[in-house]
Amino acid sequence: MAPNYNFQEIWNSKNSDIPNIKEIKTKAEKYRKKQILKDIGLIALLLSTLAIIIAIWVFIKISYFSTQFGIMLVLIGITMYSFLVYQNINILKKINTSTTNHEYLATIRKVEQQQIYMQTKGLSTYYLLLSFGFAFYFYEFALKMSWLGVLLTYGLTFLWCAVSWFFIRPRQIKKQKEKISTVISSLEKLEKSFEE
Questions:
Q1: Which CA distances in Å does 121 have to 81, 100, 142, 165?
Q2: How many CB atoms lie within 10 A of CB 150?
Q3: I want to staple 2 with a disulfide (CB 3.0 to 4.6 A). Which of 16, 102, 107, 127 is the partner?
Q4: Is residue 31 a contact partner of residue 180, using CB atoms and an 8 Å limit?
Q5: Using one digit for the tens of pLDDT, what is the confidence trace for 15-28?
C-alpha cells in the first residue's frame, strides 16, 4: 500500500532543504493543463484535416481506385493518431492533485509511457500510412502530369515527410521528454525527501 504523507506535519518537522511542495505541485499541474490544451488543439487540427480530406473525396471526381485507397490510408492514419492523442488526454484528466505524492508520481509516469508509445509506434505508423496514402493518392494525378510535375509532386511531398520525420519529430520528442522529465524528477526528489 502506498504511504500517505501529511505534508504539513513533515514540513514543520524537517529543515529547509526539503523542496517546496506547493511549487512542485503547481509546476506539475501547470504541465498537465498545458498538455491537455495542446492535445485538444492537436485533435481539433486533425479532425479539421479529416473533414477537408473527406470533402475532397466526396466533391472531387475520382476515377482510379488507387486514389480512393490513398485517401483511405490517410484517413486511417489521422483517425488512429487522433485516438492516441485522445487516450493521452484521458490519462491527463484522471490526474488528481489531492492524491498522495506516490499516486501522483505513478500517474505522471503513466503519461510518460503513453507519450513514449505515441512517439515511437504511434508516429511511425502515422507517418507510414500518410506516406503510402499520398503515394497512392497522387498516382491518378501523376498520370496526367509531365515527368517534371511528377518528380516535383512526389519529390516535394516525400521531402516534407523526410524533414518532418528526421528534424521536426525529434525536436518535438526532445521538448516533450524534457518537460515531463522535469516534473517527474521534481516529484521523485519530493518523494525521496519524505523517505529520509
A1: 10, 32, 31, 13
A2: 16
A3: 102
A4: yes
A5: 445 556 677 778 87
